[in-house]
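Objective 1b of the project was to move from sequence-level analysis to a structural picture of ligand recognition. The entry below was assembled by the postdoctoral researcher (A.K.) and checked by the PI before modelling. It contains the amino acid sequence of the target and the SMILES of the bound compound, zinc ion.
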Amino acid sequence: MSGKGDPKIKRNPKWSRDEIILTLDFYFEHYPRIPEKSSNQIKELSYLLRSLTEKIGHDLTDTYRNPNGVYMKLMNFHHFNDQHKGDGLKGGSTLDEELFRRFENDRDELRNISSSIQILISSGEHVVEVDLDDDDKFEVEEGRLLTKLHRTRERDRKIIQRKKDKVRRESGSLVCECCGFDFVKTYGPLGDGFIECHHIKPISEITPGEKTSLDDLSLVCSNCHRMIHRKKPWLTISELKTLISPDR
Ligand SMILES: [Zn+2]
Ligand SMILES: [Zn+2]
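Corresponding predicted holo structure:
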């Protein structure tokens, strides 16, 4: 859609979690010397954010995340920084502040997530447009793009089939690794061959372009799979196992 010549000035969309993560990482990387608005670093960040949006397949307007807007966001972060009470720019969002507080003392984790997003942006890796779960309504910690990559991998039919074949060969059946649920026992032939696949690598450790190995996948029933993704960061298989009580 062309916004040019449109008498109504369209406001750019709200900053997504991925965009905030990339920009916040930039902020801490350069703090306390935030580059000038007209610097190359700010231009590069602007370019990165625009590439992210293109990767997801959204249209860009000329002003989308331009150096001016990017610089303003950095100043919003500055406002949340307790070292600079009253400095910076008011007007940051609740999500800006939430992420600032989440990562101000955990910059390594922020770095990991931000690097993974950047590698993914520049990789040719395909990310499907998946609907994230209802449970993701409070957006996932790692950002939507990486979550989509995770889901894309979990839906890779070929590798899922290989995983199922392997487990069936070795154990004779397909049961949930968390709770032991067996779809055949409950549903009979209808459940034969059915089970979900969960990718167990933490998202910040996933390298885009890297092949999924069968050991990266766990077979789980649909309930357990939902429960794993319910909490952030996602539960591990063994953490979920300990939550399953036979008495409850
Ligand atoms: Zn289960
Ligand atoms: Zn999963």
